[in-house]
Amino acid sequence: MFESPWEGRAFSVAVGLTNAGRYEWREFNSIFIEHISRAEQSDDSSTYYQRWLAALEELALKKGLVCAGELEQQAEQLAAEDDHH
């Protein structure tokens, strides 16, 4: 189902935060649809889960679940972990 480990993690985080009541699924879905639409209008070559992750990051920032610095630090750490696997 997932091509890379980070895709599964992004999916799990989005679902987990919904289940924890941090936001409504429709909030995530609305932002995700916006990212898909923008990417298609601009011939963006990003993948489905890159758009998923962008929507998740946007919503997490909007809800104050993470600050931009924390998000960047986590992204760098996960990228380094994926490089080692």
State the gist of this model.
This protein has helices at residues 5-19, 25-41, 48-62, 68-84. By secondary structure, the protein is mainly α.
Outline the structure in words:
The protein has four helices and no strands. The chain has one domain (5-84). The chain has helices at 5-19, 25-41, 48-62, 68-84. With 85 residues, it is an all-alpha fold. The model has no long low-confidence stretch (mean pLDDT 90). The longest helix is centred in the middle third of the chain and has 17 residues, at 25-41.
Uncertain residue segments: none
The DSSP helix count reads 4
First-residue to last-residue Cα separation: 18 Å
Total beta strand runs: 0
| Count of spatially separate domains | 1
Mean pLDDT, all residues = 90
Helix coverage percent of residues?
over 70%
Structural class by helix and strand composition: mainly alpha
SSE string, helices as H and strands as E:
HHHH
Summarize the helices and strands and which ones pair or pack.
Elements: H1 5-19, H2 25-41, H3 48-62, H4 68-84
Helix pairs in contact: 1-3, 2-3
Task: Please tag this protein with its features.
single chain; 85 residues; mainly alpha; 75% helix; 0% strand
